Amino acid sequence: MPDEEYDFNRFQDAMSISNVGPNYEFTPSSTDIPRPGPTDVLVRLTHTGICGTDIGLALGYLGNHDESGILGHEGIGKIELLGSALTPSPTLRKGLRVGVGWIRDTCRSCDHCMSGQGEIYCRTKTFSGVHVPGTLQQYIIVPVNYLLVLSEDVEPEIQAPIMCAGVTAYKAIKTAAAVPRSWMLISGAGGGVGSLAVQYAVAMGYRVIGADVAEKHAWGMEQGCEAYIDVDVEEDVAGFVKRVTDGKMVAAALVCIGNARAYQAALECVGSFGTLVCVGIPGPGPQNAMAVLPLQLIQEGIKITGSLVGSRGDIVEAMEFVRRGEVKPKVQVITLNEVGYYAGQVGKIEAKLVVRLP
Ligand SMILES: [Zn+2]
Ligand SMILES: [Zn+2]
């Protein structure tokens, strides 16, 4: 359907953030349906996950949000309308299921885009909810060059958490490049990214030691941990890991929580030639820094690296684990109007929140 025939004279439901800071509020809003440019696609969203980053933006410690106030970056939907310059094809047509994640577009020409590291490090990439309106709305614009078509063999509500939390976990494990069957420490194992990291690590053949608060112990073990450290009780985390691993320590440690103490403890658990992968983002300031003795890295051949979400290719790979039933995200489905009520529970409840859009 050419876009001049499409009825844009309607409003859509959205949820906008206001009063950024400790007393942030999500408020229902009614906005215009966005008009796609000639090479854009209009997507009708059906579901979106809520991620810890959305709450970080609402609290104001992760920088500014988009002026629309519409956050969200774990969107699943269907193609509604193609821009005027686009021609329908089997891989580009109305009704196809697509995903809308944290990265919404890249330039495809800067030195980072051109390098092997690729699009996620693009110098001018746009982020959902930061530079453009996010997925807490019914309709959204996606540039055709950044469209991500997804399998329709899986329930959309369990695909949603993979668009950010799941791919972040999966990519971090890939980044660690540890030998299968080796030990992996996952710090923050009870959180949104961490609990999925446990499932991915097990599915990818690793033996997992989870670390998080005692009240998440049973949940962590349920996700597939072989051992679990109650960080609010255990005083000697490295000693615990040493006992469990027969003195070898872990081949990789993923820190999925933004906590400097967790980083420090994880570094002490990494064995020879192992890798510490930084995922969770501590706040700014020296109190959030980690102390590193260069000699430890030199003598033990330890690497410290960071991992940031994943490319569209990583999302496709991560989704395949869900399609095959090897990773089963536990979700709690809520309505758009319930977002404000549940927002404060992100990272606390033992499930990923997924909004079913009206
Ligand atoms: Zn670029
Ligand atoms: Zn996220």
What is the rounded Rg? 21 Å
What fold name goes in the CATH topology slot of the largest domain? Quinone Oxidoreductase, Chain A, domain 1
Determine the N-to-C terminus distance: 23 Å
Number of domains: 2
Distinct helical segment count: 11
**CATH homolog superfamily of the largest domain:** Medium-chain alcohol dehydrogenases, catalytic domain
Please outline the helices and strands:
Layout: E1 11-18, E2 25-32, E3 40-49, H1 52-59, E4 74-82, E5 97-100, E6 103-105, H2 111-114, E7 126-127, E8 139-143, H3 156-159, H4 165-176, E9 183-187, H5 192-203, E10 207-212, H6 217-223, E11 227-230, H7 237-244, E12 250-255, H8 260-267, E13 270-278, H9 294-300, E14 303-306, H10 312-323, E15 331-335, H11 339-343, E16 352-356
Parallel strand pairs: 9-10, 9-12, 10-11, 12-13, 13-14, 15-16
Antiparallel strand pairs: 1-2, 3-4, 3-8, 3-16, 4-5, 6-7
Helix pairs in contact: 4-5, 4-10
The protein binds zinc ion (2 copies).
The site of one zinc ion has 5 residues, from loops.
Keywords: Metal-binding, NAD, Oxidoreductase, Zinc
Pfam families: ADH_N, ADH_zinc_N
EC number: 1.1.1.1
